[in-house]
Amino acid sequence: MSHSIMIMCEQSEGRILAVTDELIACATQIADHYDSRLTAVLPGLITEPCSISGADLLVINSPGLAQYTCEGWEKAALLATEQIKPKIIIIAHTSTGYDYAPRLAALLEGCCLTSVSGIEITGDSISYRRSGFHGKLDLLYGVGKAPLVITVLPGAFPAPDWQAEPGITRIIDADIKPKLTSHVQFSIPDQSNTELDHAEVIVAAGKGIGQAENLLMIRDMASCFKRSAIAGSRVACDNGWIEYNAQVGLTGKKVSPLLYVACGISGSAQHISGMKDSKTVVSINRDPEAAIFRYSDICIVEDLEKFIPAFLQEAKKHQS
């Protein structure tokens, strides 16, 4: 049975971002099973429409889409579904993607599955893989009520080296005006962090450090190493303990130091994607089942407030 698959492009100032090629790679796996036609949807204020490799392209062009809003992208996606009538909608699991994807599924009265990291096909059935319980379990989900909206983890489906033939490009000039969204301010924070970019040792803090005051011992630990820097998980940054330009993970930075010390970090797929290329990973967590241990070279099961002071005491002995 033929299915239509719709891919929502990730864009910046009208330019299609590389993660869109990964979404098309994911869609291609599904399309091979369902004999599907792929259509990518590009919302925005698009002045120079282009084509896209491996899929048709539907441009939803509107001044109201000049900047991202959840409401605007919802309306653009709903307009596209009227044209494409997809059985499956694929969206990147980014800060914008997981913002509007669940709402889109609810408005379409379909299902939503987030953080998809793999696809398994057995006979006539297809299952979607994602982690659960802070990365402790590997879960497989069957297909739910159509349309199925999935968000795909960046990096889970590498884009192919070869370029497929581009499809046809269509443009819809729409008058999309968000009614429930008020424009207050739009700013892009400074994400540069040369200290983190060039660090040979990174000591990263997660939710497990408990409180902002414990960040002092993280800094003290980092100071024991030359060319070191501190970083944080998304939760640590959301809590205001660490600046966002020091966030490691899917929506932060990707790092590859010689030594990565994870302090109180559970090990979600989002965080692992940002530090998996580290040469040596040491993890400190009081939970022996923490998912981070699966990606660690050295695993320390202990309370941070006990281990780090003991480590600092030993480090002082060696320094003296």
Report on this model:
It is built from 8 helices and 17 strands. It has 320 residues and is of the alpha/beta class. The chain has 2 domains: 4-173, Rossmann fold (3-Layer(aba) Sandwich); 194-319, TPP-binding domain (Rossmann fold). The strands form 4 sheets. A 7-stranded parallel beta sheet has the order 7-11-6-1-4-5-12, with helices on both faces. β2 and β3 form a beta hairpin. The N and C termini lie far apart (73 Å).
How many domains make up the coordinates?
2
How many H/I helical runs?
Answer: 8
Helix content: 25-40%
Structural class: alpha/beta
The first-level CATH class name of the largest domain: Alpha Beta
How is the CATH topology of the largest domain named? Rossmann fold
Rounded mean pLDDT is 90
